[in-house]
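Batch job 17 of 40 flagged for manual review because the log was empty.
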Amino acid sequence: MEKKRVFLNGMKMGIPIGLGYFAVSFSLGISAKRAGLSVLEAAFASLLLNASAGEYALFTLIASGASFLEVALMELVANSRYLLMSCALSQKLSDEARLPQRMAIGVAVTDEMFGASLTRPERVLPAYYFGMMSVAVPCWSIGTALGVAVGSVLPGMVVSALGVSLYGMFLACIIPEGRRNKLVLGIIAVSFLLSLSAGILPLVNKIPESTRILLLTVIISSAAALLFPIKDESEDVADA
C-alpha cells in the first residue's frame, strides 16, 4: 500500500510535466513529419529518446540525410549532460533502488523529472519516479505521434508555421538564462553568427549540414568551457 501511495504521488507530479511535454513534443512531431517519419516511427523515437534537444537534432539529421555515425556522435554531444544528471540522481535515489530499477529510471532522466526529484526533501523511492514516468513519457510519445498525424493532413504552409513553434521553445529555454548571465547571452549570439556564417562561407557551406551542426556544437561548447570555466564554491572560498 505504501508503494502504491508513493506511485500515485509520482503520477500527480507527472501530470503537469506530461502536459508540458505534450505541447513540446507536438512541435517535434511536425519536425519528424518533415523528416519523413511515420506516426509509428516518430512515436517509437520519442518513447526511447526523452530529450527535446536530442530528438530535434535527430530529426534534423535524418532530414539532412546524415549517416548513422553522425547521428550517434551528435546524440552523444547533445545528451551528454544527462550523464552528469544521472550521477547526481543516483545519489538521491533511495537505497531500495536496485540496479534494474536504476537502469529503467535512466531511460527517462529529463530536466523536469530530475528537478522534481532533487527538490524533494527525502530520498526518492523508485515507485515515485516510475509514477512520474508513467504519465510524462506517454504524453511525450503521444504528442509526437499526433504532431506527425496532424502534419499529414494540414496544408504545407500550416505545417511550416507550426514547425516554427519549436524554435520558440528553444528561445524560451535560452533567453531567460541569457538575461541572467551576460556570458551565456554572448555565447548564444556567437553561436547564431557562426551558424549563419557556416551556411554562407565558401567551402564551409559545402560541408553537409549535419556535420556542420556537430562541429559547431563541439567547437563552441569546448571553447566556452576552456575560456570561461565555472568556479565551484571551494574555489570561490579560496579566492576570498
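Reviewer: the log was empty due to a logging misconfiguration, but the result itself is present. The first helix runs from residue 2 to 34. Unflagging and moving on to job 18.
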